[in-house]
Amino acid sequence: MAKKKRIVIALGGNALGNTLPEQMTAVKITARAIVDLIEEGCEVVVAHGNGPQVGMVNNAMLALTHEDPLQPNTPLSVCVAMSQAYIGYDLQNALREELLNRGIKDIPVATMITQVRVDADDPAFNNPAKPIGRFLTKEQADDMAEKYDYVMKEDAGRGYRRVVASPRPQEIIEIGTIRTMVESGDLVIACGGGGIPVTRQGNHLKGASAVIDKDFASSLLARELDADFLIILTAVEKVAINYGKPNEKWLDHITAEEAKQYMSEGHFAPGSMLPKVQAAVEFAESAPGRQALITLLEKAKDGIKGTTGTRISQA
Ligand code: ADP
Ligand code: MG
Fold first, then answer.
1. What's the predicted TM-score (pTM) here?
2. CA of 215 to the centre of ligand 2 (A)
3. Is the CB of 263 under 6 A from ligand 1?
4. 214 tagged catalytic
5. pLDDT tens column, 108-125
6. What contacts 314, CB < 8 A, 6 or more positions away?
7. Where is the Aspartate/glutamate/uridylate kinase domain (predicted)?
C-alpha cells in the first residue's frame, strides 16, 4: 500500500463559532470536512486557533476575580490551556461521532494538551499586537489597564480591546508524545490556540502572558511531524493580491519566492493573512515536496485534489 499522505490541518477561529452553542454546531461541520480527508486516505493531525475563545475564557476568569476577592487574576497561559481543553473536547467528541457514523471504528481520537516554548526575549513581548476578548469603551479600557496592568488598544474603530504578545513558537514540548500517537494511527488534536506559551527556566517551564499564532505553531508541528501537506482552513477560498481592490487577483499556485515577493509588496494583512502566508512559506521551504494550501473548510477535499485553494510550494 502506498504511504498515506500526512496532513496537518490548521483550523481558523471562525471555523469554531463565538459561543458555546455555536461551537457545538461548528465542530460537526468541521468533523465532516476532516473525516472526508481521512476517507480519501489521508493521515490527519488537527491544530486550531483560539482568538475568540481565549478572549471569552479570559473575560470569564476576570468576572470570577470580580466576584470573589480570594480568586487572583488568571494568567493568560492558563486561559490558553482552558481554551485548548474546551475546544479539544468539542472537536474530539464530534470527530469520534463522525468516524463512527461512517463505520470507521479503528481510529481513536485524542487531544494533547500542548505547551510550546517561546523565547523570553522575543521582541513580540515588547509590542503586544494580538487583540483578544470583548470590545470596551475608553473608560472601561483605562480601568482594566490600571487594575490588571493590561495593555489596551483601540481596534479598527470598533472599541478598545486587550492586546497581548504573540511570540514565535520555538519548540513543541510534547512533540514526542504527539508523534507516537500519530504513528500509532490516532487522530490527534494538538497545539490548540497555538499552544500554551512557556519559557524555559532550567527544568521549569514558566507560563508566558501571550497567545501564539496558530498558523506558526501549525507550521512548526507540520515540520516536526514530517507532514506532506499543511492545510490552513480559513474564511476565504483563496489568497488574493490587491485584496479588496478593483484589480484583485485570486491566486491558485505560487512558489515560496513569489509569496515572499508579494509579502514584501504588502499584499497580505498583518494579523490575518500575512501569518498564514509566512507559515505556508516556512513549511514549503523546509524540505522538498512539502506543500501548503490555504482554503475554506468546505473546500478542503477539493483543495487536496488540487482543484481549488491557494497552493504554496518550493518551486
Ligand atoms: P483565521 O481565524 O482563519 O485565522 P483571519 O481572520 O485571521 O482568519 O484571516 C483570514 C482573513 O484574512 C480573511 O477572511 C480575509 O478577510 C483576510 N485577508 C487579508 N488579506 C487577504 C488577502 N490578501 N487575501 C485573502 N484574504 C485576506
Ligand atoms: Mg487568524
1. 0.95
2. 7
3. no
4. yes
5. 999 999 999 999 999 999
6. 255, 256, 284, 285, 288, 290
7. 5-287
